[in-house]
Specification:
single chain, alpha/beta, TIM Barrel, Immunoglobulin-like, 23 helices, 28 strands, 31% helix, binds 1-deoxynojirimycin
């Protein structure tokens, strides 16, 4: 019965439709799965290796020479460097991660190449999440640019600096879709939307890897955390994930697939369980989907002790069992637990793990080392001079500044308060983030530092004409009051014409293990904002944040709000560029800002219910919380410019399309303001009736355009049936005839311009 209905109503995506989708502009950055090339010598090496040496090639350890934040978050079990060098000599290691530069790598590589029996080069890995020494905006911020090409360029600079410092392999991009803002690691990812996330995943992989794996200006990307790590229940890090296969495929899996299709040849397993089976021990995920369906040829590494953690999950009974389950599921390499080198040889001897599977995993790892050029020249990325000479070059900093300003989102600008004048006004810069070398680079930086970054006060001073017109008051610490702080801040506001209030989250409030139960501006800062607002001067809120926040009271009511995230090395300059109008804001929210924290998880592409509330009214017995509509305060895609943007003139090329057709929709976007503007024009659809209920809106494309004052442009999008596909009753992609709404709009909840069309069988 069910099957008949599917075949009558729906069409499975055929080869033609898939080709059309691949050719669509939104997919232009995505390519085909990377190919692993296995040189003949790899098999002869494998034939000569002992079981212990093979298990060594599948064992990765935190560097014993580590330091800084990496070591704090992921402490090496061994801080005895000479002992770790000895492990390299004995062939017990495939490589190390988050070590400290070319000097360390040279010592270790020398030991492996000169003193180990097999002379297999080590691989050096690191978390270069958004920059090595030059730090770019946190990944979530950069996604706000809606410019994947920008992310490709910053990834390229990160690769250039880091590969000069001996790093061959990057534990990035993190592409976990995050729809619950309580989750701290949303800061590392691509936001709430699978299309936007996919385009950034692909762009980052391309930037890291470049066109040639052997280049010493690039390194191997690792798509993580596979899979659905961002769907943790209640947004608490490491928590259970329980998802329908449909939502998993339709939302969460897409950005990983995009990363692999862009050529990434490594993947990291996620910590979470997925509908009852930990990802690390999940054969369906790691082997059937990843390799079987997607054709992934690279290798999979566990996350930090992820295999061992299956014991605490209640899935493995002991270390040996954990090693066996992870390995048989398809995780080729173990990070940090040491369980593979401890147990794999014996598991093979006892016949519980087939020798051939072990050889296959070793082959993948050695082939990748060969593709990275390590067998030809194990020192190709290890060069102390180059490490220094590539660090923080002026052109890298220029890209950081560009990327910083493009990441800023202007939520509000009542009365055109922004941009601020460069002279003639006294400015009070108030708040814990007003000045100082802290909270600039973001929560997950191994090699860059706040000390080398530009703080807000320095940026503002650089932009204003009269340096004496700036008054600075801290007002409050991030989450505790300063005695007398509010009085000082109020006095500063009284002396000033304009207040810039730099408040929000510290970098410690997001990132790994930093989920927040209540996603608001911390209380002492909210009190500061209330007191300052009472002075009556115009207030610009400059928000520092690693996630979308629920803004309240004087913060939400301030006439101007800029979302500035953690922008990295050029923080202060990037913010000043936008504050004083050297650059007009062009960022858009990659995650919706809720009305209240308790709405989490809130995302624009939610399903309609049987009782939708007719926003903006509040009706009883309708789907909403008490007192608020079921909408966001600022939705995905929202962001203002210094222009005045108008949407009009919707056209559609035909009222209907067939299964092999395409349709063009257009809108006229005009800038009626006095200043140039960059607008992100977004395309959304809604499938009115389907065999599986569809989200209220889904983004299907976007274009960023620049409009001079008075200029207008007709923006065109092409929709094809493949853009309308979803996972049907049988969890396979289908396209169903029916009526579709289509919007060209400035955000996911704005009306913009709207029309409908029919898809016919
Ligand atoms: C744990 C994190 O989950 C992962 O993202 C990171 O790459 C590893 N630690 C190594 O630092």
């Amino acid at each position: 019965m069910l099957d008949t209905r599917i075949s009558r109503r729906a069409t499975l995506m055929g080869a033609g439709a898939v080709a059309a989708w691949l050719a669509s502009p939104a997919r232009a950055l995505l390519q085909t799965a990377g190919r692993l090339e296995v040189p003949a010598f790899v098999d002869s090496l494998i034939a000569r290796m002992t079981l212990e040496e093979k298990a060594g090639q599948l064992s990765l350890m935190a560097s014993a020479w580590g330091g800084g934040i990496a070591a704090a978050l992921n402490p090496p079990s061994n801080s005895n460097f000479p002992q770790q060098v000895d492990e390299a000599r004995k062939g017990q290691l495939t490589g190390v991660f988050n070590g400290n530069g070319a000097r360390m790598a040279r010592i270790m590589q020398n030991a492996a190449m000169k003193e180990s029996r097999m002379k297999i080069p080590l691989i050096f890995a690191a978390d270069i999440i958004h920059g090595h020494r030059t730090i770019f905006p946190v990944p979530l911020a950069e996604v706000a640019s809606f410019e994947p090409e920008l992310a490709r360029r910053t990834a390229e600079v990160a690769a250039f600096e880091a590969s000069g410092a001996g790093i061959d392999w990057n534990f990035s991009p993190m592409v976990d879709v995050a729809r619950d803002q309580r989750w701290g690691r949303g800061v590392e990812g691509g936001g709430e939307d699978p299309l936007l996330g996919s385009l950034f995943a692909a762009a980052r992989v391309q930037g890291f890897q470049g066109a040639n794996f052997k280049s010493n200006e690039h390194f191997l990307a690792c798509v993580k955390h596979f899979a659905a790590y961002g769907a943790a229940e209640s947004g608490m890090d490491y928590n259970t994930v329980d998802l329908s296969e449909r939502t998993l495929r339709e939302v969460y899996l897409k950005p990983y697939k995009a990363g692999f299709d862009a050529g990434a040849l490594s993947a990291m397993a996620s910590f979470n369980e997925l509908s009852g089976i930990p990802a690390t021990g999940n054969h369906w995920l790691m082997t059937e989907v990843l390799r079987g369906e997607w054709g992934f040829q690279g290798f999979v590494v566990s996350d930090y002790t992820g295999d061992e953690e299956m014991i605490k999950h209640g899935y493995a009974k002991d270390g040996r069992d954990a090693a066996k389950l992870a390995f048989l599921a398809g995780v080729d390499m173990s990070m940090q637990s040491g369980l593979y080198r401890q147990h794999l040889p014996d598991l093979v001897r006892s016949g519980e793990v087939p020798q051939q599977l072990l050889d296959t995993s070793v082959r993948r790892v050695l082939a990748m080392k060969a593709m990275l050029g390590l067998f030809e020249d194990p020192f190709r990325r290890i060069d102390e001079k180059r490490e220094a000479s590539r660090s923080m070059l002026p052109r890298s900093r220029a890209i950081a500044r560009e990327s910083g300003r493009k990441s800023i989102v202007m939520l509000k600008n009542d009365g055109d308060l922004l941009p601020l004048p460069r002279s003639g006004k006294k400015i009070a810069l108030i708040g814990p983030f007003a000045s100082g070398q802290h909270d600039l680079v973001g929560p997950w930086v191994v090699y860059g530092t706040d000390e080398k970054a530009v703080d807000l006060a320095t940026g503002v001073r650089g932009a204003i004409a009269d340096k004496n017109s700036l008054i600075i008051a801290e007002g409050s610490k991030v989450d505790q009051p300063i005695p007398g702080g509010i009085d000082q801040a109020v006095a500063a506001a009284q002396q000033a014409d304009i207040v810039v209030l730099a408040i929000g989250e510290s970098q410690g409030m997001s990132g790994e293990a930093q989920s927040r139960a209540d996603i608001v501006v911390p209380k002492p800062q909210q009190e500061l904002a209330e007191a300052v607002a009472k002075v009556g001067k115009p207030v610009v809120v400059v928000l520092k944040n690693g996630r979308a926040l629920a803004l309240e009271g004087a913060v939400a009511n301030a006439p101007a709000i800029l979302v500035t995230w953690f922008l990295g090395t050029e923080t202060g300059n990037s913010i000043a560029d936008v504050l004083f109008g050297a650059y007009g804001p062009s960022g858009r929210l990659p995650s919706s800002f809720p009305r209240l924290a308790g709405q989490q998880p809130y995302y624009y592409a939610h399903k309609p219910t049987g009782r939708p509330n007719p926003d903006p009214k509040l009706e009883d017995y309708k789907a909403r919380f008490r007192g608020i509509t079921n909408t966001s305060l600022y939705p995905f895609g929202h962001g203002l410019t210094y222009g005045k943007i108008e949407y009009s003139g919707f056209t559609i090329s035909s009222p209907s399309i067939g299964m092999n057709g395409e349709i063009e929709v257009t809108a006229t976007i005009a800038n009626r303001g006095q200043r140039a503007a960059e607008e992100v024009v977004q395309l959304y659809i809604h499938d009115r009736v389907a065999s599986i209920t569809r989200p209220v809106r889904e983004m299907k494309g976007f274009k960023k355009i620049k409009l001079e004052p008075g200029q207008s442009e007709v923006v065109r999008f092409t929709l094809r049936p493949a853009d309308l596909q979803f996972y049907g009753v049988a969890n396979k992609p289908v396209v169903e005839p029916g009526t579709f709404d289509v919007w060209i709009a400035p955000s996911a909840e704005a009306e913009g311009v709207h029309g409908t069309f029919d898809l016919t069988a």
